[in-house]
């Protein structure tokens, strides 16, 4: 019986680990582009004795397919698997109706202990090698190298800088012996390699990246419901608790120059937006209104702040000019618009938008003032835009669990990552990382 | 032959193990299982509490009104005979802390619903006559809308209760207003009745 139980336990653990490993990275595209560009990424050649820790071609294929704009080819459908320029026969790829081809060759330098990967991108129709580059790094960096190659290929194909080497921060909520466990985690943009930065038995919300991608701010509740803002270093995991004032201390947003945070405090008895100098900790009040003012977010040039206010009766998004103090209401469509964020080029604002019953993510074009709804899921919240402005990640619900979902800003692509263990919420897409 | 038997045993063991896993995971792995279980119990409590609010309140009132006949007979009925008849002690029965510690709100609203005034009056009277009593007034919101807005909305609800209690003579020193926003739902469902149970202010006496 004991033996059986132990075997059962080990067996179950195995199943659990396998399920988790799969669950974390399973993207399901629910809506895609009509005619994605076909790109075959051939398994990279590797002559070394040691087994490569990762299949780089598969990582690159997965990266490209997550954009919805590219459709990879599975290995078993390939007629040939070249890894050098002189091995490429375009007719093989034309037969398979591939638009583009990526090949790669991995070498290992025993002196520097680094892998050197040479990769090439081919335009199959024009039969030309349109791009060739090399990346190098250690065994631990193989996933990073694959994402770098994805970035290179994507930039060449689309003309837009890739975001495959960026990170996503989020909050997980699981139950441990009946007690809730909240975690702040940062993973690769594809969900792999999650790293825990903070853990608590009480709630954590509102993650925000510093512009250099080094720090994350978040709100932590203590057991009696008092909130305070923490800043954690992504690399060292060093934790700083910022000064707290009476009432709410939350919704931190780093200024683009990294010197200040905008945040919400309610020591006046009502939620207002303040500025805190991160070195002197001196605070300055920015809004003063009997209505709720919350969710500050900086414009890319640091001159304006977006915020949510119900000064017009219901929550809507307003823009504050820091130099003059002028406030302008931005949203008029829908009964509830909140948590606005500028795109990195400052041309539009993404937000949580309620039109009838459902809450969706929407984008407002600041020039035409047109609002476009981007998601079809319900109870959508916490949108965060990729630094290249093409995609956004947001929190939604799936089978009663909080999950992360993605949408392209042009409204064509929708994907979701189901969670089989607890809730995943409050995503925040990192800026470009050095 | 031996091989096929062995295979059978493996297959059976695997099936049993899987069944075992299924029942086991229901107990200790699934956060969902855990939270729904917890929710079920909480919901029950709330479901019981919510509709009965006024009833319990009036019961309490009845109890205090009739108190002189029961436990406090010795003091209430005897003392008046030795004191001036103008001060009938039984008209000021002991003010007890109400048993119901939660009031509910409408969607995106922070105004006190008239049906909860009586309950708030009782909390107010208790706090006003017990200046040493302290309570955290905790506001909550349902999950619709953004977490930060709901955090502010929950606080606004807590302040609405605070303002009401202050008028009843409660000292601001006795109360601390906090908000959990949408982070501590008592009911995790997606129906309006679930949401209604989560839009609340709780008295957490210290």
Architecture overview:
- The complex is a heterodimer of chains A (434) and B (206).
- In chain A, 13% of the residues lie in helices and 44% in strands.
- In chain A, strands 2, 3, 4, 5, 6 and 7 form a six-stranded mixed beta sheet that branches.
- With 434 residues, chain A is mostly beta strands.
- With 206 residues, chain B is α+β, with helices and mostly antiparallel strands.
- Helix content of chain B is 54%, strand content 11%.
- Chain B contains seven helices and four strands, in the order ααααβαβαβαβ.
- Chain B has a four-stranded mixed beta sheet with strand order 1-4-2-3.
- In chain B, helix 5 packs across helix 6 (147-167).
- Mean pLDDT of chain B is 70; it is low at 1-85.
- Chain A binds chain B through residues 7-8, 11-12, 15-16, 173-175, 178, 203, 205-206, 221, 224-227, 247-248, 250-251, 264, 266, 269-271, 292, 294-295, 308, 310, 314-315, 336, 338-339, 352, 354, 359, 379, 381-382, 397, 400-401, 421-423, 426, and chain B through 13, 17, 20-21, 24-25, 29-32, 34-35, 38, 108, 136, 138, 143-149, 151-153, 155-156, 159, 176-181, 183-184, 188, 190, 204.
Q: Helix proportion of residues of chain B, in percent?
A: 40-55%
Strand arrangement across the biggest beta sheet of chain B: 1-4-2-3
Termini distance of chain B?
72 Å
Instruction: Provide the residue-averaged pLDDT of chain B.
Output: 70
Structural class of chain B: alpha+beta
What global shape of chain B is seen? elongated
Low-confidence stretches of chain A: 1-23
Overall average pLDDT of chain A:
92
Count of alpha and pi helical runs of chain B = 7
Query: What's the β-strand tally of chain B?
Result: 4
**Strand portion of chain A, in percent?**
35-45%
